[in-house]
Hints:
By secondary structure, this protein is α+β, with helices and mostly antiparallel strands. It folds into two domains: 6-96, CATH 2.40.50.140; 127-424, Bira Bifunctional Protein, Domain 2 (BirA Bifunctional Protein, domain 2, 2-Layer Sandwich), CATH 3.30.930. 30% of the residues lie in helices and 26% in strands. The strands form four sheets. An eight-stranded mixed sheet has the order 6-10-11-18-17-16-13-12, sandwiched between helices. A five-stranded mixed barrel has the order 1-2-3-5-4. The protein has a three-stranded antiparallel sheet with strand order 7-9-8, with no helix packed on it. A hairpin with a 2-residue loop joins β14 and β15 (340-344). The longest helix has 23 residues, at 128-150. It starts with 5 loop residues before the first helix and ends in a 5-residue tail after the last helix.
Amino acid sequence: MAWRNINRSLEGRLSGDDVEISGRVVGVRDHKNILFLDIGDHSGSVQLVIDKRTYDQDGLDQARKGSFVVAKGTLENRGKDSKEIKIESLDVIGRSSLRIQSPWEIDGSDPLFGNVVFSFPEVYVSNPQRAAILKIKTDFVGALHDYFQREEFVLVEPPIITDKTLYGKDNAIEAEVHGERVFLSQCATFELEPLALAFGRVYTISPAFRNEMAGSKRHLAEYTHAKAEALLADIDFLKNLSTESIHHAMKVVLESNDKELSLLGVNPDIEGLEPSKQERMTYNEAIAVARERGSETEWGEGLKRRDEEIITAYCGNKYVWVDFPPFATEGFPYRRLPSDRRLSMTCDLIAPHSAGEMVGVAEKITDPEELVQNLIEKGQGKNISRFWKYIALREYGMPPHGGIGAAPERIIYGLLGLDHIRLTKPWPRYPDRKIVAPKEDLDDYGSDRLAGLIEKYALRG
């Protein structure tokens, strides 16, 4: 049979219909002559009722939690949302022998189980809460695609391997490819700008990387970057584009994820994302508000988490645009504020309740000499050859333009009120969790078969 999720398999079926269904065993209850199996996937679950007297016991013993089964039987509707299947045949086609804590018996979004779910992500991505978060993020990203394409943005594919960094080498991840020292992309702006010159409006939703060592609950070393670039775009257009796209995507999430949101116990308030509901202040005003309330951040420094909390609380826990932060804290391609060249033509949308920066927008420089000066000022003078073609493009018809950038992981983290941003990635990369597994991690997890393989092939050396 071809795989179909459980809800789809039972859709439109009536009591008394013969059905065939497949899925993981997520619950087992044994009552003398009757065995109850709960079969589940991300779409839902259904109870199988098995008369043990008609089945081989060895076969039923294989139907443990985690096993993948194919079942045929008769559907019975027991109530509005309650169904069960009286089983005529049951085949275990994916055995389960690992003796580990069941993904279906814990709340994967609870920080108490963080060490469990991230110690074996291959298993615990099946945890209902983890799967719900990932499903929500998938729908959010899909809705962003729909929005940008509706607004005539062309989807493009910037490279992951690049010779450029937006903020210097300190937080870049280096690699060697074909004998060259290169970087994993921090930001696709260098490629989106020439592509915008070809198409007018472009966007990408692609991986980005930072050598993030802070251990913050809001940062990852590998994340998704949703970026858009548009010709003839100014700050006001970019701010409206960014908030409208996020608001649209979250509306789609709310409309299509009732079960997932209920499972997580959250009801995101997205009204505050509407442009008319947002507050706005300049960086100068934001620093003044924060310092009046105990912040020690000096003028010219980037806003810290505590500053963001103070500012959003001061504004009634609304989303707040902080306009024109210092150029020293921003990327070199961004325009300076004409009235005060210490500041930049950029703006950041700060989310309430400690979620932090949700999206940033920036007008870009079109003067090649200004780009050269900025690179030198930011310590990149020796690397100008890497940026030269990007600079030279300013002499080949590049008009005023600008872009937006946001991380879907940060947005979902904030809107769902998650404890840690790592919950938004199947395999999150953060300092407390090693990527490379040492040989001593070759655990047999109580499986005789795995133990036999470890011994047979001397896998621990």
